[in-house]
UniProtKB/TrEMBL annotation:
This is Transcriptional regulator, TetR family. Pfam families: TetR_C_1 (PF02909). Gene3D superfamilies: Homeodomain-like, Tetracycline Repressor, domain 2. InterPro entries: Homeodomain-like_sf, HTH-type_TetR-like_transc_reg, Repressor_TetR_C, Tet_transcr_reg_TetR-rel_C_sf. GO terms for molecular function: DNA-binding transcription factor activity; transcription cis-regulatory region binding. Keywords: DNA-binding, Transcription, Transcription regulation.
Length: 243
């Protein structure tokens, strides 16, 4: 007697292969529709009913035959976006991680929901595995221990994902409050900021707030990425000097 599969099993291993495609449904069409809906949603939330409606099928239950479960669909969506992140062939570890950081942030900006979903499921799909394999190959030249090698990869990739979480929450806040533009946000905060200035309790914050570029680059930029890589390189140099 076989035991029942645990809920939330990974689609790569625990679900049966999807049935043949029909004129309306296939695994690829379902994933594409789910990603499009998540991209359009300020919160990134989607439902099987909304996906079914976009695909022109009456029953949301028909989708489960192709993706196994809502968790299975999440696996597929997340792995699809992992496929948009690139790492050049090994040669210059900084150049490889730099490109990974750039392309990861670009992918997160296209799909902010990916940042949240990527933390909810283990990265064991084929695109995620290819990405991690390429990134680990890039740092092989540094002769580091296993924990440090994956730490280098996750330092760069994790920054893009965590910044994506901030971007997603900001999108949801703007939708919820109706303050969709930077100008509207600034206008809403102005009375409170003026009161802070008048009280004079936080002189360094007030001075920073008065500078014209105070809010520049609040999300990842080329400079932020270089700071990360500089720190990682310093670690490599320190370890080499100690041996």
């Amino acid at each position: 007697m076989t035991s029942a599969k645990p809920p939330g099993g990974l689609v790569w291993f625990d679900e049966p292969p999807p049935p043949p495609a029909t004129t309306q449904l296939s695994r690829e069409r379902i994933v594409a529709a789910a990603i499009a809906l998540a991209d359009e949603s300020p919160t990134g939330e989607i439902t099987m009913r909304a996906i079914a409606s976009r695909l022109g099928t009456r029953s949301p239950m028909a989708l489960y035959r192709y993706v196994g479960s809502k968790d299975g669909l999440t696996d597929l969506m997340v792995d699809e976006v992992y496929g948009e992140i690139t790492v050049p062939p090994p040669g210059d570890w900084r150049a490889c991680l730099r490109e990974m950081g750039r392309s990861a942030w670009a992918a997160v900006q296209r799909h902010p929901w990916f940042a949240r979903m990527s933390f909810s499921r283990p990265p064991l799909g084929p695109n995620a595995l290819r990405l991690y394999d390429a990134a680990l190959a890039a740092v092989d030249e540094l002769d580091l221990d296993a924990a440090t090698r994956i730490g280098f990869v996750n330092t760069v990739l994790g920054q893009a994902l965590k910044s994506g979480l901030a971007l997603l929450e900001e999108r949801a806040m703007r939708e919820r409050t109706g303050l969709v533009s930077d100008a509207q946000l600034a206008e809403a905060a102005h009375p409170y900021l003026e009161r802070i200035k008048a009280e004079g309790k936080y002189p360094h914050y007030i001075r920073w707030l008065g500078e014209p570029d105070c809010l520049a680059d609040v999300l990842p930029s080329e400079q932020h990425l270089e700071w990360q890589l500089d720190g990682l390189q310093r670690l490599v140099e320190t370890r080499r000097a100690a041996t």
